[in-house]
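Example with several molecule types.
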Amino acid sequence: MWKTVVRRVLIMIPQLFVLSLIVFILAKFMPGDPFSGLITPETDPARIEELREKAGLNDPWYQQYARWIGNLVQGDLGKSYTFQRSVGDLIGEKALNTLWLSLVSVILLYLIAIPLGILAGRYNNSKLDKTIVLYSFISYAIPTFVLGLLFLYLFGYKLQWFPTVGSVSVGLDPGTFSWYIDKIYHLILPAFVFAVLGTTGVIQYLRSEIIDAKALDYVRTARSKGIPMRKVYSKHIFRNSLLPIAAFLGFTITGLLSGSVFIETIFGYPGMGQLFISSVLSRDYSVITALVMLFGFLALLGSLLSDIIMSIVDPRIRIE
Amino acid sequence: MVSVTNDKDSNKVSSPPTGFQVIFREFIKDKLALVSLISIVLVTAFVFYMAYFVIDLNELMRVSLRDKFAEPGEKFILGADQGGRDIFGQLVVGAKNSLEIAIAVTVITGIFGIVVGLICGYFGGWIDNVIMRIIDFFITIPSLMLIIVFITVIPKYTQWHLILIISLFGWTGITRLVRSKALSESKRDYVNASKTLGTNDFVIIFREIMPNLSSILIVETTLNFAGNVGIETGLSYLGFGLPPDVPSLGNLVAYANNPKVLQEYWWCWAPAALFILIMMLAINYVGQAFRRAADAKQRLG
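Resulting structure tokens for the full complex:
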């Protein structure tokens, strides 16, 4: 299997290379550059030109690309013009927030989806099952930003159960116990939106898996040996059906990343999605390119992770 | 004589229902799907009629500060926004714009995806290999971010650009599906028989294989349409869809980005948000009904 993993990783390299080329060329075509914002009637055009020259913006694009990719490989993501600091540090700080959000989202997602999927599969065609199927249909159809806004309006502003903006209240010392609690408190509502929207796949998979398993030989054998149905479910079926759910983790990562752009904008949460939107608006190329590359890399990693987990838990599936 | 008529009769009874009969039966059985389908058609017709023949866009978008945030009432059914512009009119025109874009994207990606998918699946070989590698690439890249970057790059930006950019990233799903189906169809006996008779490849592809895929194509197109409504409104919401002065469902929802509007002037954003919600549910529901109709195992009627 390690051979295939290495091969998959090697395939990732040309993909990332093409992505980097596209992103870089697009960023170069963006109207304006980080220095156009500095132009005021008082500034000397020569000074701006000098800044551009110094930043290497007047070189041909392929030279700039080569320089950028060279730095990128060495782990130097460049410098953000709007924030005047290294892109690596900037993204690192925001990435931590997005990581927290994703972690809480994934936990909530599985906490909601697994019991619902199990119940729907066990009592299929009952009222309960129909309700769960309806719920998973609705959560599939709702766009992220609509549900996010409705929740923000309802739970944030009307009921005031949760804070409406930011990742932590001002005035708390980082690292203290109340700081962590406050951080989690800020996370719950956006993570809940994520979780509600992400449950569809897990519920549907688990449900159909359990329904299929009911008719399989090993379940019939267990029943004929006199094992009560309750035990057949908890010991035999669930164990078989739950494992493949682990493979959804990789896809969830991809979904979380594209969703973070919406969720973080709505909830004013300072993560990578929000950073992306704000840097597009301020034409901060180095941040945009770095973020797209990072998201592309993480998405590739997610799908690889899914395939690996899948082949571990289900030996019938072999990744070629 | 008698036995002949009997034969004819039994033939009639045992002949499997054709595509449209199956769909029709499915909708008769599932009243909610029927209601969804009828309301989608009615709403779309109403919105297009109003936007093209009744509402004057210049009149609608004229700022009148006297009516700033006017509450829903007699003058404005759904109130007015920051510039005193009628929300109901904007909702109608916005819905038209959003639906128009979603329809255009669905048609473009549908035609492209079907043609490329059929060709790849039928011929295989290096074309198939190349296209599949391209699709693999498109599936793994963060497309939402790239769409946003694309949109900011284009200097004179119109709704046609938006349609093309969304289509550029939206053709992969249907292509992959059509390809896999065409691949399995092209191994069937009827295709081989037709080949032996010397039928032209393109006649086989479009006259013989494609009709056999019609049911999944209907399902996929409906679900794609729902997805495209979601993408367009989402982009407009973030500020990277239609320009802010063009009414769009997403732009209306984006009023909610101002916390004060979100809290106090709910009529600015809530109607558009609910409209998107209901449209998405209805279109997806119809898509599910089509899917059930296309799959004999899940059929209700």
